[in-house]
Amino acid sequence: xxxxxxxxxxxxxxxxxxxxxxxxxxxxxxxxxxxxxxxxxxxxxxxxxxxxxxxxxxxxxxxxxxxxxxxxxxxxxxxxxxxxxxxxxxxxxxxxxxxxxxxxxxxxxxxxxxxxxxxxxxxxxxxxxxxxxxxxxxxxxxxxxxxxxxxxxxxxxxxxxxxxxxxxxxxxxxxxxxxxxxxxxxxxxxxxxxxxxxxxxxxxxxxxxxxxxxxxxxxxxxxxxxxxxxxxxxxxxxxxxxxxxxxxxxxxxxxxxxxxxxxxxxxxxxxxxxxxxxxxxxxxxxxxxxxxxxxxxxxxxxxxxxxxxxxxxxxxxxxxxxxxxxxxxxxxxxxxxxxxxxxxxxxxxxxxxxxxxxxxxxxxxxxxxxxxxxxxxxxxxxxxxxxxxxxx
Length: 392
Description:
Helices cover 45% and strands 14% of the residues. The chain contains 16 helices and twelve strands. The longest helix has 27 residues, at 112-138. It is globular. The two termini are 45 Å apart.
């Protein structure tokens, strides 16, 4: 798939030669690489050999109609944005196509601006999906490591909850891996091929959080030099992970509540409603019930978010997993940094298991890296004594 700004590959499937050729001429002039197919079987054969960013497919065609083509492409799991076109379209037809997996539905006669906007939106969606795939490969800690009873319980909950659209609130201290639980929920859901967007609410200044969440129009405020799509729009069709939601301002909380209730939002500087289909997963290291009592968090939002609550255990509650975690981090650090793989003696592991890990998994990884740099091979109990202080 091509990223936004690269040459996009487009396939036009229509049994009417005049429409095929005129649409190709227009899109070629716009700088797109365009192929043509006169029927469904031809299109499917071409898709088998070539990757397309966008496929425009007529619904009414002799033999195999467009909906059959759509069904086959969706069943094959292709990444292309499939746009259905028809001269006999109505709302019911459009809704049915979208439910089947179409990216958009456009009626004939085709409007050039509508076509170009659809291509732009498809390109942005492709960019987000590709960035998510790259992130999965590069971001540290994509595996939930450990076979302790506590971890097996977490996995069981994820397996039950992920296939649903139920909202999930993930609770746990810093460094326990709440973001891994959120990503696992997305990857095991029916939305896994769609965007997974993260926002750390604590990292965004309160005056910018609404723009980050809901987007803004050009000129909405001094630095708004162009239109911006917020995280909710970017996650449309997929999952939005709101990390540290306990730090979100009350004003932003009210607007998030509206989106959860009405499935629509308004960008900052606009009164136009935009429909969104987003599964929201939230996480916090705070006790939200206490925050509600203090007036810092909305009780109605809490109940909207906490359909399912997952409590991620601290490392001190799952010390049986430390040997596996150490092995995992050794391999990971070695791969990332080029350092030789180090073994840890049984005595060193027992010492690590006997410690208190207030920083949880994140702290353990830092300690493993320190011992790989400063310790011997194997890393000994003496190395742990020498290089791991009580306050790490």
